[in-house]
Structures are given as C-alpha cells and as structure tokens.
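Worked Example 4.2. Consider the chain below.
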Amino acid sequence: MDTLIFEPQDTLFFRDGRPFNQGEGNGGVESQFPPSPLTLVGAARAAWARAMGWPGRGQWTDEIRAKLGGDDDELEKLQFSGPLLFKGDEPVFPTPACLIGKMDDATPSDVVRLKPSSGTMRCDMGNAILLPAPDVRKDDALEGRKLLSGWWITQEGMQQVLYGQTPEVEDWIHQSDLWRLEPKVGIAIDRDKGTTNDGMLYSTQHVRLHSDVSLAMGIEGELDEFPERAQVALGGEARSAWLCKTTDPLHSLEPAVKQAGGALRYAVHVLTPLAVENPPEPDKAFCDLPGTVVSACLPRAQRWGGWDSIAKEPAAMKPHLPPGSVIFMEATPEDEKQVPGQHGKNIGRRSSWGFGLIAIGQWN
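Applying the procedure from the previous section yields the following structure tokens:
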C-alpha cells in the first residue's frame, strides 16, 4: 500500500453537520477535523482523473470510471485507508478512550488503562454487563481522572497501548501543537455581476496546520497514471494543497493479542471513523471479527455525511464510531492466526473509502 500525503498551502475548512443557512446566526461554523475520508479520497480521485484527461468538470468517461470507480458504498478496484495525521514523518493518533488520566501538569499524568470489569452489572443492555473499569486495584482509581480529549500520542506511544502499556511522557502531543483554529469572515459573490450579495455575510472557523503537520491516506490498487505530485482543491472553499504519492507505509504499528484462561483476548482500536449499522453489543459478533464483544470504551459518536455528486446536494448524515473508540473482544484459541490478520484492515460500511481502519491490541 502506497501513501498519499496532503500538504495544505493555506487554512482548511471542513464544515460540521450544523445548519449553514442565511439568518441562522451560530457564531461561526466550525471545522470538523480531521476530515472525513470522503473528502480526501474525492480530492485524490479528482487529481487522478485529471491526469487521465478529465477537464475538471462534467462527467467522467467510461474509461476513468472503470479505473477509479463510481460513487457506490464500496470501490471495487481501490482500497483507501485513513486519513491519519502526520507530524513530521510519523503518524500521530487520537488518545484511545481506554486511557484516563489527570490534567494537573503540562502533560497527562497518573494515566491508567480501562478494561472490562470483573463484576457484572444489570442494566438496559443486559443482565450481565461488564463495564470498563481501571486496571489498578485502588479505591481512588477514578478520582480526578477523565478522558484525555484534545491529546494525541505518537506512533511509539500507540504501540505501547497495543502492548497493554501506557504512553511515556514524551509520547503525548496536545492538539494545539498540531493545528489551531482561525476565524474567517466572508461574503457571497454574484458571479454573473462580480459584486457582493446583500445580507450574505458569513463566518467560519478554519484549521491552520503547523508547518510540520500534514494529512495522509493509504492507497492500494493499480496506480498507473496516478500523479506523483499534483495541486488539489481540498475541503470547503476549495483551499489549495499539494498531493504527493510515496511508497512509505501509512504506519508501522504491530498487532498484539493475549491468551488467558483458554480465551484469546484482543482490543480493536478504531483509527478512522467506523460506519456500522448497530453499535457493538455484549456477547455478539461485530463486523465479522473473530469472537464476540465483551465491553467497549466509546466516546460520543460523530456524524458524517458527504456530498452527493449526482444529486448535487449534501448526503444524509449518519452516526459513526469516532477514532479512539476501543472494543474489547474475546475469541477462541483456534482464532489465534485470524486475529492478527485483522490488524490494519478496514471494517464496516464504506471500508474501501478509508472508513473503519483498525489496529489490534491486547487487554489483560
């Protein structure tokens, strides 16, 4: 799998799902970042189509469509993975929801891991539910600790999480060291007259990445005629970015599983938004992964839509499990060879577009 690197030349804007209609003052529409896989895949396919002779507007030819696919839920001949955020030459990852810690210092401190509890609970989800609990035997294990939102970890830190450990101090990166938000004010233009439109003033919140930060997507398929370097329009307001193709891997994380008490236990770490019809349920299978669900650490769901290029209107927004979600699974020893093979795969709906990239770790 090759890697596509997107290097913005300006601020970027990826609107969220809130209304953006005239007369609905909301203090500025914020960017949802990192963006949807659909946005980056769309920019990459458009650059590829131009390299094959597409003028930049109008329908693709049958030759281009046969190579790049259509707008279906799955692409037959291509597989995308991502997007991941890169700082320098290595990816960084949102903090997994199985980590909680204190925020008294400049970096998270007293970080502990969550795992399925040993005691069951009866609730609306079932009669014997195992909720996540700290993996340390302390009465105050939850006191002062919370989810580490706004913090990211390095590739080495993420590898330690997969091994069942916690990141070191130097592995933490705050969101402010990756990007910042910039308020923008604009006004709609009448393209026929070249003048501004009355009452069409709007405000948005753009994202400005730091100089050493970029976005990356993995791509696999027959990539002949794909440009080695191209300038693309990325996100809302068609902001400019450079697209470069490299043979470097998207990440070099290694899977980790653990056998305990005649069972094979592993944790599914969600790296990109995961589109599923139903959330994970205890004692049930999940996305054709080996074994059944034991428990899960799930942050608030994200809503992603997209753009329907045929109808020329926004697509319906649907909930997705966000990056950082962790699903605890239990399989049989007979699945020992199958489980590591799920590492680095995409699961769920629209998996070929980059949704549902996962990494396999262990839990004790």
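The first helix runs from residue 37 to 51. The mean pLDDT is 89. Compare this with Example 4.1 before moving on.
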